[in-house]
Amino acid sequence: MRRRPLHHLVLTLGLSALLTVSSAQDSASPYWRDAWRGWHFYEDPAADEKPAAPLAPLASPQPPAKPKTARAPELDEFERLQKTLEEYRNVAIIRPTEANVRRYMELEAKVVNQASNFADVARRVAWSTPELDPTLQGRPVNAKALEVFEETQRTDRSRTVAQLGKDHVLFFFYRSDCPYCHAFAPVLEAFQGRHGIQVVAISIDGGPMPGFPSARRDNGIATALQVSQVPAVFLAQPFTGQITPIGFGVLSESQLLERISIISSPEGVAMLPSATRQLALP
What is the C-alpha separation between 146 and 149, in angstroms, rounded? Predict the structure, then answer.
C-alpha cells in the first residue's frame, strides 16, 4: 500500500476545515459580507421567508340576546279561526254550493256566539266598575238622568254667560227686511233679560228692529267682520276689542248658551284662535 506524504495529508485536512467554516458563515453572515459574490445593494429574501400575517381585528362584543316573551296561545287560536273563516267565505263566494255556504255559515255563527259571550262579560265588568261604564261618562242615555244633566248644564252655562256679561256684549247684525232676523230678535231679547248679557243690535240697512229701539246703524264694522249673512251674532269685549263669531242664522236659547260657553273657554279659544278678531270698538 502506497502512503501519501505527510504534507499532503495536512493540506487535505486544512482545506476541509476551511470549507466547513465557510459553509457555516454562508448561513449566518449577510450576503454583503460575501466578497466572492460581488457587491449587491439589495437581495430578495429566500423563498421560504413569508411576511408576518396582519393581526385580525378585535371582534366587537355582541349584545346579549333579549329573552323572547311568551306568546299567549289564545292569539294563535284567534289567528287560525280568523284565517279559516276568511278561507271558508272566499271558497263559498267563488263556489257557492250548499255545502260550502253551510260550512261558512256554521263557522260564522260560532264566531258571533263567541263575540256575544265577550259582550256579556264586558257589560258585567262595566256595571261593577264605574270608571269603565260608558253610560256614566259624558251625556247620559237614561231619559230621567238626561233631564238632570241638561238642567245642570244649563245652570252652569247661564252662570258663565252672566259672568261674561260684566265686560262682554253680544253684537246682533240684522237687516230690517230679513224675516229670519225678525224671528230671531225675540229670542235675543229674552236671552238678554234672562242671562244678564247686553245685546247690541246693529242694522246693516239702517232700518229698525222691534224689541231693540236703540239699534245702531252700521258704521263699517260689518264689513270689517265680513258679515255676509244675517242674522249674525258675535261675542265682543269692548275694553280689549276682541270679537268672536257665535253663529249665523236663527239660533235657540240653548244653542246660544252652549256656543258662548264653549267659545269663551280657554279650550274653545285654543281650538280656533284665528276666529277671534281684534278691532278698535267705539
Answer: 5
Strands 169-174 and 198-203: parallel
CA angle 179, 181, 187 (to 5 degrees): 120
Q: Where are the domains of the chain?
A: 74-135, 144-278
Closest C-alpha to 202, from 241, 169, 162, 179: 169
Helix, strand, coil share of the chain (percent; to 5):
55, 10, 35
> Which of 264, 263, 259, 245 has its CA nearest to residue 191?
259
- Helices and strands of the chain, counted as H and E runs: 8, 6
Cα–Cα distance for residue pair 168/159, rounded to 1 Å: 14
Q: Is 106 helix (H, G, I), strand (E, B) or coil?
A: helix
User: CA–CA distance from 235 to each of 99, 146, 151, 218 (Å)?
Assistant: 68, 29, 24, 17
Question: Taking a C-beta distance cutoff of 8 angstroms, is the pair 250, 180 a contact?
Answer: yes
DSSP state of 29: S
Count the Cβ atoms, other than its own, within 10 Å of residue 279: 14
CATH class, 144-278 region: alpha beta
Mean pLDDT, the chain cut into blocks of 10 residues (282 residues total) = 49 48 50 54 56 62 74 92 96 96 96 94 90 82 86 90 92 95 96 93 94 92 91 92 92 93 84 75 60
HSE-CB for 213 with a 13 A CA cutoff? 0
Q: Which of 65, 148, 80 is nearest to 110 (CA)?
A: 80
pTM (2 d.p.): 0.57
Separation CA 263–CA 234 (nearest Å): 11
- Residues recorded for the chain: 282
- Give the sign of the dihedral formed by CA 21, CA 26, CA 28, CA 32: positive
